[in-house]
Design brief:
Elements: E1 2-5, E2 12-15, E3 19-24, E4 27-33, H1 41-48, E5 51-54, E6 62-68, H2 71-84, H3 86-100, E7 113-118
Antiparallel strand pairs: 1-2, 1-5, 3-4, 4-7, 5-6, 6-7
């Protein structure tokens, strides 16, 4: 779960997101996707204020910094996810294509992705 700050209200907000990639062992960053594209409120909030808090598994909530992935990184992450989870992707992609209004593939993906790097 991601805790972020509303860009207009300053209020704490929470959203549950699909983790496409966990980096490190133990994980010190997570890559998540914005299924509603750049119009998702959480996405707009973290681009306005990248200071967030991540709730993952049984770990204590941790402060983190959000960073939007560039196209090359997003394509790589999505391609890896599709290879690791082909059956999940079959269903997930149909939902994403409806919410984004465009086909989603691992080449020039229209799916915005954000890395949530835990602060040290």
């Amino acid at each position: 779960m991601l805790e972020h700050i509303g860009r207009n209200t300053g209020a704490r907000r929470h959203v549950v997101l699909e983790v496409l990639e966990a980096r490190g062992n133990p994980a010190d960053s997570y890559v998540v996707a914005s299924g509603f594209g750049d119009r998702a409120q959480w996405f707009r909030n973290v681009t306005a204020d990248p200071r967030v808090r991540v709730y993952a598994g049984s770990r204590a909530p941790a402060p983190a910094t959000a960073r939007v992935l560039d196209q090359r990184e997003a394509d790589r992450v999505l391609g890896d996810y599709i290879r690791r989870h082909p059956r999940t992707w079959e269903q997930f992609s149909a939902v994403l294509e409806r919410t984004l209004g465009t086909p989603v593939s691992a080449t020039d993906t229209a799916l915005p992705m954000v890395e949530l790097r835990l602060d040290r």
